[in-house]
Amino acid sequence: MDRPRGKAGLVVAHVLLPLPLLWRGTRRARLLSLLQDKLILADSAQEAPMDAKDRQIIRELQKDGRLTNQELAERVNLSPSPCLRRVRNLEAEGVITGYTALVDQKAYGLPITVFVRVRLDRHGQDLIKGFEDAVARIDQILDCFLLAGGDDYLLRVIVDSLEAYEDFMRRRLHAIPGIASIDTSFAYGVVKQTRVFPLAG
């Protein structure tokens, strides 16, 4: 049997400050104040929590996003109608954010993966926003993570050659204002790569 769900409320937080700054000396109070100013509460209602069946559905779709509803229902031991209803609820609530194709990076022509750690020279709100906006516009950067620790960001970059990476560094990354240091690590092999989440709870 499928379980009922209430209409999901959303709590949206748009944060531009790197998390490690929250622990840096006398800036703590100011940064906490700025962080609080950036919290936008759209609705105080809470979503119904996912159950084990929802997570099972998600894991199966992560393994194969082309499953038909009938095939998915059989894998998670549901009848088709409740299964489809759960999938649509997960999509409507923003848990399932989309469906995509997994592509062989080397076959596509971009065999080189580079991890780049970036530290900013200061942490004003305008500088941080400028950096993050610039990163969002650069196609070679696939992921950008905020870090706790000495560095502020970790970037995952893919390129077709060492020459292309040098060009990326000179023309794109170094052109962004406010960068204090850049540390680069090249990946020369993949041991594990998966998009399937582990079991939770």
From TrEMBL:
UniProtKB keywords: DNA-binding, Transcription, Transcription regulation
The HTH asnC-type domain, residue ranges: 50-111
Alphabetized CDD domains for the sequence: HTH_ARSR
Domain of life: Bacteria
GO cellular component terms given for this protein: cytosol
GO molecular function per UniProt: sequence-specific DNA binding
GO biological process: regulation of DNA-templated transcription; response to amino acid
SUPFAM superfamilies assigned: Dimeric alpha+beta barrel (SSF54909), Winged helix' DNA-binding domain (SSF46785)
Database matches in SMART domains: HTH_ASNC
PANTHER family: LEUCINE-RESPONSIVE REGULATORY PROTEIN (PTHR30154), TRANSCRIPTIONAL REGULATOR AZLB (PTHR30154:SF34)
Protein's name according to its UniProt entry: Transcriptional regulator, AsnC family
